[in-house]
């Protein structure tokens, strides 16, 4: 019985397997094709920006939007960096770029450090009301920018740092603490509390335990916090335009001024070059630290 | 000399929940105290209170005669080994061990010397430059021990240090801890839920349940004279047989009547027991129900029972039967001819019998 029925069945089974494997390959290629289309779609604006910034105005006027430049010129980049006019001044984005650096670097460092200390306290030194305080900090993440503009302007005025770079650093640190605390708290709750206990028995105090034990463990989440905060602060426009004055504006505000305050012919190539310059630092941060970013984001979710 | 650890009327509450109630324990220098009980009995909380990691809600706690009630852990002169080992993950083994000394500002020459000493003692010299993540469970355990040993404290605290190890390693490390205690003559407090660990290591055992101390005593006191039904059932493996019976006093002692499945009740007489209530629970260790001819003495009495299950365990064979409506385990020698379903004659040795009151669980003799 088995012989008779088993023999003719075998080719059938193989046939099904062959069909299904062919189907799998087709599915795979379909998937790749879709991914490719989307990748191109998302790369298109960058491509247009890059090529436009390398063309002369003449060529932009006469040529095709998505065509490669016939003649590569870096004039637009030079103009955008040091000659383009933002209102009455014509120094390019250079001074504002440095303003942004002066705002973003201390802002990122201070908010990350404060977030680390906060997260360490909330996760490892449970005190009465710790959860309420953490909930309130979390709530801070969801307050829209616009709501705090007026009170913040008043506060900065009272503190005497209105329109200054320290003022902008202060605003960004305050706004970032909610997020950085959340990151570090979620990372530190996965660290067993016995570690803190062991260090206490060993004689270490609050700060010693933080510096010697918790901070060295924190690289993945520090990277997350740095990327997040740097992107937020560098790309911020609303705070930058609200709380700055001539000379302390960040690059995002300067870019807006370059694009919007030109008279006569629009220098698209200069606009594009300025936009790329303004976007480069965040791109760089992602490229350098992106690997850690993904690792850090998922670090808390799966236990070692 | 003042006791090395003296706890009086200690209470611990979390909000309105009482976790520890009226704890009184005291140990002399060189003792090995084991806190044992089922999970949630408060033994780890008590250890944390001794370490100063949890504040106490009432009572006093003194180490070597000094009141420690409000002293922070670092000033209590204690060292602690944790269940998860709690090694600092970013530090090498050597740094882990010397961290405490570094924090306390011990000079580096002394650090080096003590590190070398402890590393030799625990045979972890080749591991000193590794990170905890590169070590096996047993090696981590040793490093955690090293971190405690290097401090040379007045009191060592162990919080279930062996429960993350596999069975074989656990037995090895148990012996090593025992040897360590003997060599150092140090005072130790050890928390475990494993009653065999408690029996083998302790010079003094505290059995806890629901935040209340059930009994304090030497291992043999706890084993042979359990204070109540809980201790009788918890300590010993297989557990003590607790058989409901009827007691009747007569001139020469007490007549104990135990219901037997499919037959007349077994009648045993205990010449030493006096004034037992009518309903009692008879506590007999499995080894006190043996094969006839292996035990001698006036307290040995024979009776036959029907066998339910036979479990050979190598050195011994455990035989289960039913008495007084409860399963009863007897420990026979390995060549026993007992077979399931057959009727077998057992020798009951009443020299170490315990009697308990059924309602309160209190020991009666």
UniProtKB/TrEMBL annotation, chain A:
The UniProt record lists the keyword Membrane: yes
Gene3D superfamilies: MetI-like (1.10.3720.10)
One GO process term, biological-process aspect: transmembrane transport
Subcellular location: Cell membrane
InterPro entries, sorted: MetI-like, MetI-like_sf
Main localization, broad class: membrane
Family annotation (Pfam families): BPD_transp_1
Annotated transmembrane regions: 25-44, 101-123, 130-149, 155-184, 205-228, 272-294
Domain ABC transmembrane type-1: 97-289
Protein name per the record: ABC transporter permease subunit
Coiled coil: none
Membrane topology: Multi-pass membrane protein
Organism: Maritimibacter harenae
SUPFAM superfamilies: MetI-like
Family, per entry: Belongs to the binding-protein-dependent transport system permease family.
UniProt keyword terms in alphabetical order: Membrane, Transmembrane, Transmembrane helix, Transport
GO cellular component: plasma membrane
TrEMBL record, chain B:
Pfam families named in the record: ABC_tran, OB_MalK
GO biological process, one term: carbohydrate transport
Gene3D superfamilies listed in its UniProt record: 2.40.50.100, Nucleic acid-binding proteins (2.40.50.140), P-loop containing nucleotide triphosphate hydrolases (3.40.50.300)
CDD domains named among the record's database cross-references: ABC_MalK_N
Cellular-component GO terms for this entry: ATP-binding cassette (ABC) transporter complex, substrate-binding subunit-containing
InterPro entries assigned to the protein according to its UniProt record, in alphabetical order: AAA+_ATPase, ABC_transporter-like_ATP-bd, ABC_transporter-like_CS, ABC_transpr_MalK-like, ABC_transpr_MalK/UgpC-like, Mo/tungstate-bd_C_term_dom, NA-bd_OB-fold, OB_MalK-like
Similarity annotation: Belongs to the ABC transporter superfamily.
Name of the protein in question: sn-glycerol-3-phosphate ABC transporter ATP-binding protein UgpC
Originating species: Maritimibacter harenae
């Amino acid at each position: 019985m088995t012989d008779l029925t088993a023999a003719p069945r075998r080719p059938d089974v193989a046939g099904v397997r062959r069909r299904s494997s062919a189907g799998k390959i087709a599915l795979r290629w379909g998937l790749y094709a879709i991914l490719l289309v989307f990748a191109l779609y998302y790369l298109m604006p960058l491509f247009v920006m890059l090529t436009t910034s390398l063309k002369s105005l003449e060529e932009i006027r006469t040529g095709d939007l998505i065509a490669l430049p016939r003649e590569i010129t870096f004039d637009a980049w030079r103009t955008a960096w040091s000659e383009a006019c933002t209102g009455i001044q014509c120094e390019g984005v250079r001074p504002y770029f440095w303003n942004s650096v002066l705002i973003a670097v201390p802002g990122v460092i201070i908010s990350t450090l404060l977030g680390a200390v906060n997260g360490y306290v909330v996760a490892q030194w449970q005190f009465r009301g710790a959860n309420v305080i953490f909930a309130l900090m979390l709530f801070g993440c969801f307050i829209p920018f616009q709501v705090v503009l007026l009170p913040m302007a008043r506060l900065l005025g009272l503190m005497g740092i209105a329109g200054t770079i320290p003022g902008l650093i202060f605003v960004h640190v305050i706004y970032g603490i909610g997020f950085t605390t959340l990151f570090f708290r979620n990372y530190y709750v996965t660290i067993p509390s016995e570690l803190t206990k062991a260090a206490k028995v060993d004689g270490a105090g609050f700060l010693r335990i933080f510096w010697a034990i918790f901070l060295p463990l924190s690289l993945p989440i520090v990277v997350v916090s740095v990327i997040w905060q740097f992107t937020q602060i560098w790309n911020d426009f609303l705070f930058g335009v609200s709380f700055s004055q001539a000379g302390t504006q960040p690059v995002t505000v300067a870019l807006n001024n370059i694009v919007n305050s030109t008279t006569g012919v629009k220098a698209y190539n200069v606009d594009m070059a300025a936009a790329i310059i303004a976007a480069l630092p965040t791109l760089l941060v992602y490229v350098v630290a992106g690997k850690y970013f993904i690792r850090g984001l998922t670090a808390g979710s799966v236990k070692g | 000399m003042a006791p090395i650890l003296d706890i009086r009327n200690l209470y611990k509450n979390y909000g309105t929940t009482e976790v520890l109630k009226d704890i009184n324990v005291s140990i002399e220098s060189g003792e090995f105290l084991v806190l044992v009980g089922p999970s949630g009995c408060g033994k780890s909380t008590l250890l944390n209170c001794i370490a100063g990691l949890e504040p106490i809600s009432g009572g006093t706690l003194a180490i070597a005669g000094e009141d420690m009630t409000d002293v922070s852990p670092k000033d209590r002169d204690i060292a602690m080994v944790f269940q998860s080992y709690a090694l600092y993950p970013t530090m090498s083994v050597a740094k882990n061990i010397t961290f405490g000394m570094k924090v306390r500002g011990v000079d580096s020459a002394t650090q080096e010397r003590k590190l070398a000493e402890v590393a030799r003692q625990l045979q972890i010299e080749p591991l000193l430059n590794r990170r905890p993540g590169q070590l096996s469970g047993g090696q981590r355990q040793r490093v955690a021990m090293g971190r405690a040993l290097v401090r040379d404290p007045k009191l060592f605290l162990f919080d279930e240090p062996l429960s993350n190890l596999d069975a074989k390693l656990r037995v090895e490390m148990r012996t090593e801890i025992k040897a360590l205690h003997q060599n150092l003559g140090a005072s130790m407090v050890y928390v475990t839920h494993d009653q065999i660990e408690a029996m083998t290591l302790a010079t003094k055992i505290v059995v806890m349940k629901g935040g209340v101390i059930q009994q304090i005593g030497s291992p043999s006191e706890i084993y042979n004279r359990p204070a109540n039904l809980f201790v009788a059932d918890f300590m010993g493996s297989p557990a003590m047989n607790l058989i409901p019976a009827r007691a009747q006093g007569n001139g020469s002692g007490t007549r104990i009547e135990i219901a037997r499945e499919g037959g007349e009740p077994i009648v045993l007489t205990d010449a030493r027991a006096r004034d037992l209530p009518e309903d009692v629970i008879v506590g007999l260790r499995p080894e006190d129900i043996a094969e006839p001819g292996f035990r001698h003495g006036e307290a040995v009495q024979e009776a036959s029972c029907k066998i339910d299950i036979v479990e050979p365990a190598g050195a011994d064979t455990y035989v289960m039967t039913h008495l007084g409506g409860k399963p009863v385990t007897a420990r026979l020698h390995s060549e026993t001819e007992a077979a399931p379903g057959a009727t077998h004659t057992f020798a009951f040795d009443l020299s170490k019998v315990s009697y308990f009151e059924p309602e309160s669980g209190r020991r009666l003799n």
